[in-house]
Amino acid sequence: MPWKLALYREATFNAVLLLLRKAPLTFEQRRSVVLVSRDMSALVNVQDDSGVLVGNWSGNYTPYTSPSAWRGSGKILREYWESGGEPVRYGQCWVFSGVLLSVLRVLGIPSRSITNFNSAHDTEFNRAIDRYYTEEGESIDSGDSIWNFHVWNEAWMSRPDLPPGFGGWQVLDATPQEESPQGGGFRLGPCSLRAVKLGQRMNYDVEFVISEVNADIRTYIVKENGEKVLSRVNTSHVGKNISTKAVGSSAVNIVTNEYKFREGSASERAALLASEVQSEVEVEISVDKEVLVGHNFTVVVKVTNKTRKSHDYRVRIRGRAMLYTGITGQVVKSSSANITVRGSQSGEVSLTVNAADYLKLLEGGNFIHFVAMVNADNDVSAVETHNLRLKTPDISISLPPEGLKLYQPASLEVSFRNPLSKTLYNGRFELRGETYVQPATVTLPPVPPRSLATGVLTTIPVKKGSVELVVRFSSNQLSDILGDVEVDIAGP
């Protein structure tokens, strides 16, 4: 989803000046890009200083704006400025990053947004995510979590406060996660990217970022007597893909190797000092590669007996609705089964999940978190997890044969197939194209199950050039269906 930075609007400029006045910096300190950017990462969130955005991950945003509804920084910063600095509701990580990106660029600081998939949230700053499960497979809260994705910023600057060689790209994060160990407050950075890759402690907040991109996941099974048994250490799940937008195009630029050495290499392990755990039983969870929301699917748990003797296993599978931050909700479906697996062989247990099991329970992001707990007859246990994101259909966009011309009305035909076995009510398509075209909306009649939702969006181009047009569909039953197309707007 493109994010409009709104850099050249008067309200954006005034809002940034307001933030600069709120920053507890002397005029001399304002000469330091290190100090200014650090304070901006704090002021974009509301936690300590009546900043720009209130974070909300509850799923309940009424009567304010849902984080997924924002399309750029302009409206947020204008609302903040016009209210005299009243916090705007609500934001999540990509919104915090988009607003901070606008703020930094208005201040003349080169910056970009970064997305980290499988991002660790380490509350103890120990470069490890500890997960605890009962012998029945119930999760025990440890404070640590794995976000399916997290978005932060990088800014390019020199670091005269650090040893030579640690300037360049620096991580900044305005999303309020943990208070900074260096000076307190919900802020992060600037944190040298080179320090993160080398695993070196220095200002600011390097430990937290190292964990975000390279923490090990340590899984423990807690027995009835309270004993914690280390079941598994996963050294490669966190920081699976770190990327940003390429310069001059919408292509994805992978920057994972700028944050860490290749997974499993001697340098990567030396930077983290991880350990391996051997187990007598191995558990794998697999799901169909792509599951469209509204459809049934099957989860398969594969149990591999790594001993030479035959063993009996109790296999429990449980799926829960999950937010992208890793917080789980209600149980979608669960089952258990007993299997016998010969030595050095594998056995499988499957769970069929119907659309009716999950549709009313899904929260933002359409994620389901599965846990498989395996207990053997020799008192050996193992646990595995799997996060499934249900795919939503893409919107098809048909442009007029003559293309788009400046100041000439243009009609776009848009459509997608309702994947649900229920009717969609209060559906509408919305068109956005930065400042190049006028916004457009069309309201739809009820869309029957599995049928095609169609509409015509009429807009007027008001600026020449190349632009990515984005169409979004929302309804009471299904939302955040997206489609996009690149167009060239010609002159009159």
Please provide a written account of the structure:
The chain is of the alpha+beta class. It contains nine helices and 27 strands. It has helices spanning 10-22, 33-43, 74-82, 93-106, 193-198, 206-214, 256-259, 266-272, 355-358, and strands at 53-55, 88-91, 111-121, 128-134, 139-140, 145-157, 168-172, 191-192, 216-222, 228-234, 241-245, 252-254, 281-287, 297-305, 311-322, 328-341, 346-353, 367-376, 381-389, 396-398, 404-405, 410-417, 428-432, 440-443, 452-459, 465-474, 481-490. The strands form seven sheets. The chain has a six-stranded antiparallel β-sheet with strand order 8-7-6-3-11-12, sandwiched between helices. Strands 21-27-26-23-24 form a five-stranded mixed β-sheet, with no helix packed on it. A four-stranded mixed β-sheet has the order 5-4-9-10, with no helix packed on it. The mean pLDDT is 91. Residues 85-176 form the Transglutaminase-like domain.
